[in-house]
Structures are given as structure tokens and as C-alpha cells.
From TrEMBL:
Protein name as it appears in the record: Stalk domain-containing protein
Span of domain Phosphodiester glycosidase: 299-435
Domain Copper amine oxidase-like N-terminal as annotated: residue spans: 800-907
Alphabetical list of Gene3D superfamilies matching this protein: Copper amine oxidase-like, N-terminal domain
Record field: transmembrane: none
Organism field: Paenibacillus rhizoplanae
Length: 909
């Protein structure tokens, strides 16, 4: 199927589910319901607040530089930008991607993608909608109520058909393109009229709308005393949920009334090509008095500009999508048309705009991830004016910001950049797609397709792909290219490349007179930020076998599975082997309770700690004989925390349930499930990882745990940065680098609704917890480690351990304010061992559940596979390696004290 056929199919699929009544226009304004405020808990309960909008100020010292541009399809260009700004006197940088659509090009178009199958009330990711509809690029769209069925808050026209009407909320702008290819940005109201066969009329309030609280009228409910139409695009049985009104519903097929249900909803979804009129109060009285089964019912509607009062026929539009505040007007930053307090901060952002001459539409997405600092709304305005936007609006941002595009010569779209939550794409109600209708052209060029980043030992297949004169993919598989690679870091044979050493190469393919090349980088150990073993702890028992997949995370944030051939394994405390991704313990050395399987990739290490202690069940709530209480930090927040009987898959067991209602609160809000009053429940020994089963509520809130450690300090553990699932799942949390001093106490599990991006998160919900366990290798791995006190004096060649003086051959020294000691004597006193590699000048220190990799003269170190930075580096003095005492001892769980008068260092365990 070619791109043209795909585009036609998707358009027909989308339009087949829409409603198109007879076009009879009404000139008079309706005396209908005027709506105020949003429903509490909606996406944007804060941003929809009706307070005055602040005047936008241009961001100071903002600049944007174009990094690259590449054609997506004829008439659509992907442009990459780097922006720089100043925040509180400090420079901040970030990245943004812009798809520039040329409306003068007849082959490219914009349209609104909707859920699954072109339906409302069925959410889908941006990438999923793009794949389903054949879009060559796309971004997320309108704001929506996360607790609702899945309908946009603004108006929507798809394929020239009205899908949803604007909510009558102040300052909510929309973006549209007319069928004669002119862009429009304006604020609209909806006006509609129902006409019975006897000539009686009643105002129509909207089409396919979720429930919300109105602005500016006497009613606090959008559906009170109102009539709404629901088409077959609305697939949910409730029309809508949470409306606080009892419906009278009318089924209309071919403009004829076929069913009437008084004071109750029709127990059916909307049939194909029909619509259901949903009424309440005065509107229901109209139905009872004037509508009869078998009679005709006429529906008319119009959109009206709030700025010009001109009517707009939706049938003249190719597409329309709702947004939020206007951002740019006449090429300058505009005053915000709504309050933006709840969508503040530096976030990922999505926006739409067009050029002064109306030729170009700019589809904008700014990144917020490890590579980019995000944008404030004011900075987004500056970015838009920098790149030539004449008029532009804000779309849904934050965690919803997602862009996908089809790279040149490829056949499907991919994620343009990582979202705020990584590669995960949030399911949303609609998006804006870029489509092509270009015919197949002649071959214009070829390019190499394949991974641009490899690890040593990794094999990857590359292919030659072509694009035509319209920049759409064409098949060039018949070509038999010759492959070469420069630089020696990669070998290539018939399109299969093998990475052999770190470096960057030019991979080239030649077919006849045509050739293409691409750059491939092979990552070395210095290019990694972490090396992660899929299993951090394992049982130390002969015959035990565990899966040990290893993945690498580059400094740029990319995660890549490490080929087995690229890893070198070393076993300490046992004899073992690794094959087919599995670690097998063949024999345990006599007297050993802790072993280490060390995996090295080009000098970068991680370790699997093996001990006789496996995961220890800590709390399953079956026999919890201590109290649980609900607490919060914010006035107006209510909830419950209690052990209750599990349901569904947890039937027959008990779980800890945490319910919360933050709808009356403000600011950063917490809902705590408190363990055992203020004391919490003890975690008796050092834990390297935690496991907990959690029932999510798809609230997109933050989930954490709070502990008090042995030193009295409070420690916070992220269980989930975002609760983006429903139902039960098991969370595994690495505690090895947490710095918690054990024994500790788990005080509470809790949910956070933070101020930044608060419009995205639900304020009500219920989560539950079960089967909490900890891996505490210290129960065995540290049980045999010596305890006590050791003291050394600067310049003195002696060490006093538990009152006994021992000679040492190198005295501690102080250099640049830091104390250095020979690590050998610390380990002799407190247990553990060190492995020295003279070639690489690395020393790996192993103690208990900790594996610490240090390099002479380098301030960076690796703890349990994660690269970290220190203020000082190890050094060599008199042929002995000296390490920064405080760095090493604190990372190994020891306590260091300094006595200034006597220049004495005391270490305690």
C-alpha cells in the first residue's frame, strides 16, 4: 500500500464515524446556558480558573539557533533548534523540534487525529494515532479531563466534519485550517438549535462534550437544563459521566426520532450514522412536550468568533483543534488569555502557529528531558517569535508533549525525542497529524538506515533506502550496494556491521553511480553513565542460576542492551560462569557468605552481589497488628488509609488501600498512608533493593516512600515518578546508592500532586499496596564484617583498631583539605577487599553489598554500576594507592570523624 492509499483509507475511516447534520444556519445568538469554572479534578482545574490572565513578558536574553533541517515529505520540513536563555542569572539550554508545513504545497495537509478508530472516548498515544491514520508526523493535541471519558475540552473538526464543539470557557483559543488552505487562530463559541416537527425550538448546547463547570452563568453544571448531541464518534455508554444530572435521551436516525427514554439513559451506544440527544431539566421538558417517536427533529449549528462576532461554518474547515491561551499575536508575545498559573514552570511544551503571510504552519514541540531544560510559557513565546510565528497558541504540554515523525526514506514514524517520562507515550484524546497525498515520483536519493550508536561487540544490520521526488519512501531493495567503513571501529559485510572498538566511523554504501553514507559511533566505557545488571542481587548457592541481562546507558541518555561478547565477567568468592545471559554458581568458596559477579564493559563495571540472603518478605498486610492512618500536608485534602480485603486478582488477601481527594486543596499536595503512628515499621538490616506490588489509578501523580534512617535523617524513595497504569504491577526499586543508614524505619507510603504540571494530574484516586519485600544481603554479607572503631593520625604510620595499635607502611596525608589513606588498612579493619588493575590504574573496592570502582587521578567513580562525581580523586604515593578517606568510607557505609587538635581520623562501623 503506497502512502497515498494509506492516507485515503485513514481519512475515510475517520470521517465514517462523524456526524454531519443538515446545514441550516441561524443568525440570532442563543440565550443558552453560559458556563463558568471547570469540573473539579479535570485536566486543568487550575489552568481553567477564571481569574485574570497575567500580561506575558518577553523572556530576557533568549536566543534560538537552527541546528538542522530535513524534509519529512513534500511540503513538510523537520527543523531542529537549540535555545539558550537566562534563568536567575544562570544560563539554561534546551532543544525543540518544529515541523514547518507549507500550505501552498497541494500535497501536504493537516488534520486532527482522534483516539482509536477516529473515535472519542478511546485514548491512544500520538504515535499510535499517527500509525493508524497514516500521518507522516504528528504532535499531541488539546487539553482533556484525565478523569473523564476522553473528549477534548476545545472544539474539534476532523476531515471537514464537526466532531466536538468548543466548551464555553473564556480565553480558550483554537487553531483551524480552512478548506481553501488558510490558517486561523481565534476564540469561538457554539450556537445550535433544535427544531421539533411542530415548530417548537430549544437551544442546543454542544456536541460530544464531557461534563465540566461553566463560566459566567447561574448554573454550576454544564449539562443542567441543557441539550447535547452525542454522535457515533462517542463510543462510551455514559453521555457523559459525572454530569450531576439525570438524562432524558432521544435516539435520532436519519433525522427521525426512533426512541425516547424519559428520565433515564438509553442503554445503548450510538448507532452508526445516528445521534442521541441528551437532555436534562428544561431541555427534558421540551422533549416531553414536543418530541414524538416517528417525527422529524432538525438540528442546526454555527461557530461564532468571539473577537469579530462573525459566524464560521464548520463545513468550510478542513480541521480545527482546541488549545489554551494565545501566545503570539502580530509577531509579538501576547498577553495570556487565561490564567497560566497551573501550567507554569519549565516543561515540555506543544504549540501551533502560522506565518504572517499564512503560508507556513509551525507545529512546535519543546523537549524536557536529560538533554533539554524545557521552557516556561514566556520562553515559549520568545521561541515562537524567534522562528517566525505571527500568531500562535498553546496546546497541551508537560508529560503529554509528544512528537513523532517519519525520517527521510523510512516507512513509519518514530519518536522524535524522549518525553518527560522517557520513551513512554501518554495516551491522549487527540492530536494533529501531517499527511501527504503526493503520487509516487522518481527516485531522488538514497540513504542508509540503521542504528547510529553501537556497543563493542554489537552487530547491526543496515539497509539502503530511497526517497522519491516528493520525499516519500521508495523501494530500492533491488540495488546491491557495496559497503565500506572508515576508521576501524566497525567492520561491515553485506550490510551487517560489527562494532570492534570505541570511535566514530563513516559507513558508506555504493550502488552504481549512487552512494550514501552515515555516521556510526561505537561507545566506549567513558561514554557511559551507567551499566545496569538486570539482577542486582542473587543467592550464593551452588547450582543457583539467575538471568543477568546487562544494559548500558550512554551519557546522552540512550539505553542499549550490551552484547554478551562485549562483557568480561570476574567472580569473587565463588566459581561461576555466564552463558546465554544466565549466571550460574558452580561452587562457593569455603567460609564465604558474600560473592560478587563483576561485569566489565570496556573498563566500566557493574556487579551482581550474591549472598545467602534472598528477598525477605517484610509486609503482606495479612496480619498487620499496628495502626495505619491517613495524613496530609494541605488543608482541604481528605482521604483514608486502611488495610482492606483485596478484590479481583487480590481476592482472598489483604492490601493497604490509600484513597485521596485533593480537589479542595491548593499547592503541592500529599496524601500519606502512615505506618504505626509516628514510629513506622522497622527495616532491620541494610537493604539493596525493595519490591512492592502497587495498584495504580492512572492519576499521573508521583508515588514515594519515606524512611527514617539510623542517623535520624529522613530519606525519600521514588516508587514511581508517574502513576501511569491501572491495576496491579510490581515495582522494583534499587536502594544500593541511596545513602540510607540501616536499620531504618518505613514511615509512610504516599502520593504527591505537585504544582508543576498540576493540570495533568488527577486530584482524586485510590492506590493500594501489597507484598512489600526487601533484599537485605547485609543479613549475611555484612553479618561477618568487623564492627568497631579505628583511628589514624596524619603523618603517623600506625592505626589503632578497637584499642590495638597496628603498623601501617604509608601514613595518612592531607592534601588540598582532603584526607587520603591506603585503602588496604581500612578494609583490613572493617572487612572487604580491593582489586587493583595496574594497566588501567583502577581499584575496585568490595564490601558488603557495595562495589566501588575508582580510578587514579579521576574524580569520577562508579558505585554499583552508576557513574558519579567526587570533589577529589585517588592518587599514588610511594608506590601505594591512596584514596580519599571520606569518599570511600561513606560510600561503604562507614562513619568518619575528624579531630582538629590531634589531627586524628576516627572511622566507625
Amino acid at each position: 500500500m503506497n502512502e497515498l492509499d494509506m492516507g485515503k483509507k485513514s481519512t475515510e475511516q475517520t470521517r465514517g464515524n462523524q456526524w454531519s447534520p443538515a446545514k441550516k444556519w441561524i443568525a440570532a445568538s442563543l440565550a443558552g446556558v453560559i458556563w463558568i469554572m471547570p469540573v473539579v479534578g479535570s485536566e486543568g482545574a487550575g489552568w481553567l480558573g477564571a481569574g485574570p490572565a497575567p500580561v506575558a513578558q518577553a523572556a530576557a536574553s533568549f536566543s534560538a539557533t537552527k541546528l538542522s533541517e530535513e524534509v519529512v515529505t513534500s511540503g513538510a520540513m523537520m527543523m531542529k533548534y537549540k535555545f539558550t536563555t537566562v534563568r536567575s542569572g544562570k544560563s539554561a539550554t534546551g532543544l525543540a523540534s518544529v515541523i514547518r508545513v507549507d500550505l501552498n504545497n497541494p500535497y501536504v495537509s493537516l488534520d486532527v487525529m482522534t483516539g482509536k478508530g477516529g473515535n472519542l472516548t478511546t485514548r491512544q498515544s500520538t504515535g499510535g494515532m499517527a500509525a493508524e491514520t497514516g500521518a507522516v508526523a504528528a504532535v499531541n493535541g488539546d487539553y482533556f479531563n484525565t478523569g473523564g471519558e476522553g473528549a477534548p475540552i476545545g472544539g474539534q473538526v476532523s476531515g471537514g466534519v464537526l466532531v466536538s464543539t468548543p466548551s464555553q470557557l473564556n480565553g480558550m483559543y483554537a487553531f483551524a485550517v480552512t478548506k481553501d488552505r488558510k490558517p486561523i487562530i481565534d476564540e469561538y463559541t457554539f450556537e445550535g438549535m433544535l427544531t421539533a416537527e411542530d415548530g417548537s425550538q430549544f437551544p442546543l448546547s454542544g456536541v460530544n462534550k464531557g461534563a465540566y463547570n461553566p463560566e459566567g452563568g447561574s448554573s454550576t453544571y454544564s449539562h443542567a437544563n441543557a441539550a447535547y448531541i452525542y454522535t457515533d464518534a462517542w463510543t462510551a455508554l455514559e453521555r457523559p459521566k459525572g454530569s450531576s444530572t439525570t438524562p432524558t435521551e432521544v435516539l435520532v436516525e436519519n433525522d427521525t426520532i426512533t426512541q425516547i427514554s424519559l428520565d433515564s439513559a438509553l442503554p445503548v451506544t450510538v448507532p452508526k450514522g445516528a445521534y442521541i440527544l441528551r437532555t436534562h431539566g428544561l431541555a427534558a421538558q421540551f422533549v416531553k412536550a414536543h418530541l414524538v417517536v416517528g417525527q422529524k427533529l432538525n438540528s442546526t449549528y454555527v461557530l461564532r468568533s468571539k473577537t469579530t462576532q462573525q459566524q464560521l461554518d464548520p463545513s468550510t474547515l478542513q480541521m480545527m483543534i482546541g488549545g489554551h491561551t494565545i501566545l503570539v499575536n502580530n509577531g509579538k508575545a501576547s498577553s495570556f488569555s487565561r490564567s497560566t498559573s497551573s501550567i507554569g514552570g519549565y516543561r515540555a511544551r506543544t504549540a501551533l502557529g502560522y506565518s504572517q503571510d499564512g503560508r507556513y504552519v509551525y507545529v512546535i514541540a519543546a523537549e524536557k528531558n536529560s538533554n533539554s531544560a524545557g521552557l516556561s510559557l514566556t520562553e515559549l513565546q520568545s521561541f515562537m517569535t524567534n522562528i517566525g510565528v505571527w500568531k500562535g497558541i498553546n496546546l497541551d504540554g508537560g508529560g503529554s508533549t509528544t512528537m513523532v515523525d517519519r525520517p527521510l526514506a523510512e516507512t513509519s514514524t518514530t519518536l522524535t525525542f524522549n518525553t518527560e517520562y522517557g520513551k513512554e507515550q501518554r495516551t491522549i484524546v487527540n492530536g494533529v497529524g501531517v499527511y501527504t497525498s503526493a503520487p509516487q515520483g522518481e527516485v531522488k536519493g538514497i540513504k542508509i538506515s540503521g542504528s547510529s550508536v553501537l556497543l563493542i561487540g554489537q552487530k547491526a544490520t543496515y539497509s539502503l533506502k530511497g526517497y522519491d521526488t516528493y520525499y516519500n519512501p521508495v523501494d530500492v531493495a533491488a540495488a546491491n550496494p557495496a559497503w565500506t567503513a572508515s576508521g576501524g571501529s566497525v567492520t561491515v559485510n553485506a550490510g551487517e556491521a560489527t562494532a570492534v572498538k570505541p570511535g566514530t566511523v563513516k559507513l558508506k554504501a555504493t550502488s552504481g553511480t549512487a552512494s550514501a553514507e552515515t555516521e556510526v559511533t561505537v561507545l566506549g566505557g567513558e561514554d557511559l553513565s551507567s551499566l545496569i545488571a538486570g539482577t542486582a542481587t542473587a543467592p550464593l548457592q551452588a547450582g543457583a542460576t539467575v538471568s543477568v541481562p546487562v544494559s548500558a546507558v550512554s551519557k546522552s541518555g540512550a539505553t542499549i542492551a550490551v552484547p554478551a561478547t562485549a562483557l568480561k565477567w570476574e567472580f569473587i568468592g565463588f566459581k561461576g560462569s555466564v552463558g546465554d545471559g544466565k549466571l550460574k554458581v558452580e561452587a562457593v568458596d569455603p567460609g564465604v557468605t558474600t560473592g560478587y559477579a563483576i561485569a566489565r564493559y570496556d573498563g566500566f563495571s557493574t556487579a551482581v552481589v550474591l549472598s545467602t540472603a534472598a528477598a525477605t518478605a517484610w509486609e503482606d498486610f495479612e496480619n498487620a497488628n499496628y495502626p495505619f492512618t491517613f495524613t496530609t500536608n494541605a488543608a482541604g485534602v481528605t482521604g483514608t488509609a486502611a488495610v482492606v480485603a483485596g478484590s479481583a486478582e487480590r481476592a482472598g488477601s489483604k492490601v493497604l488501600s490509600l484513597s485521596y481527594d485533593m480537589s479542595a486543596g491548593t499547592g503541592k499536595m500529599y496524601a500519606y498512608a502512615q505506618f504505626n503512628g509516628t514510629t513506622g515499621k522497622d527495616i532491620p538490616a541494610a537493604a539493596t533493593s525493595m519490591s512492592v506490588d502497587v495498584m495504580g489509578d492512572m492519576s499521573l501523580n508521583w508515588m514515594r516512600a519515606e524512611l527514617t534512617d539510623a542517623s535520624g535523617k529522613t530519606a525519600y524513595i521514588d516508587l514511581a515518578k508517574v502513576i501511569d497504569w491501572n491495576g496491579w504491577k510490581t515495582l522494583n526499586i534499587d536502594l544500593s546508592g541511596s545513602g540510607i543508614k540501616f536499620p531504618a524505619s518505613l514511615k509512610r507510603l504516599y502520593v504527591v500532586n505537585v504544582e508543576e504540571g498540576q493540570d495533568e494530574r488527577a486530584k482524586t484516586g485510590t492506590v493500594a499496596f501489597d507484598n512489600i519485600s526487601f533484599v537485605m544481603p547485609s543479613l549475611s554479607s555484612e553479618a561477618g564484617l568487623p564492627k568497631g572503631t579505628a583511628a589514624m593520625s596524619i603523618g603517623g604510620k600506625a592505626m589503632t583498631v578497637n584499642g590495638t595499635k597496628r603498623p601501617i607502611d604509608v601514613a595518612p596525608i592531607v592534601k588540598d583539605g582532603s584526607t587520603y589513606v591506603p585503602i588496604k588498612y581500612v578494609l583490613d579493619a572493617f572487612g572487604g577487599n580491593a582489586v587493583w588493575d595496574a594497566k588501567t590504574k583502577k581499584i575496585m573496592v568490595l564490601r558488603g553489598a557495595k562495589a566501588l570502582d575508582l580510578t587514579v587521578n579521576k574524580k569520577e567513580f562508579v558505585l554499583n554500576g552508576k557513574r558519579q562525581s567526587a570533589e577529589v580523586a585517588p592518587m599514588i604515593l610511594n608506590a601505594r594507592t591512596l584514596v580519599p578517606l571520606r569518599l570511600v568510607t561513606e560510600q561503604l557505609g562507614l562513619t568518619v570523624k575528624w579531630e582538629q587538635n590531634t589531627k586524628t581520623v576516627t572511622i566507625e562501623s
